[in-house]
Here is the input.
Amino acid sequence: KEMEEFKNKKEEEKSLLISEIEKFKKEKEKALEPIENKWKELENATSEFEKNKLELNKLNPIMRKRVEHVVYENQRVLEAVNALKRKDINKFGQLLSESGKSALKLYELDEKTPELTFLYNFGKTLPGVLGIRNMGGGFSATILALIRKSDTDKFMRRINEEYKKKFKRELLMIKFKITAGVGTLTRNSNN
Here is the structure.
């Protein structure tokens, strides 16, 4: 019976999550309508946003926040690409954390998911953390943390301990390492 109740609760949470994600997508699209023709290139998006920020805020302050996150997120991605090309992992980590902070604040995820806010705020204080941000839509309290290899196990132990104290359940964590990226696999016809 408990398992059935748990499953039902998870299904309800999933439905609410999907509904919130769809709501955010629609808000973003509506917010971009009045200004989307003005932004031809990604590199110009930041300056175009700044020029139109007040107009957007008058139309809808919530939408303005969503657009602000997207515009500056695009800028952070461009900066992150450059940081990785220079092998500047500290700058990359800083951008990762700025991205997480922006999503929490401008998408107001901190109000809807206290677990996510906790993981972000506590996680960034731990030794060895170079960067941290939310993943997905933010509603499932999923984070990505860039951690020095030597501090990974300690990070996982500490964040799980504190999370368990606060939320009375353990975290599911996946440890992975950075690779060269996506590649194409070919099948040997002899196999």
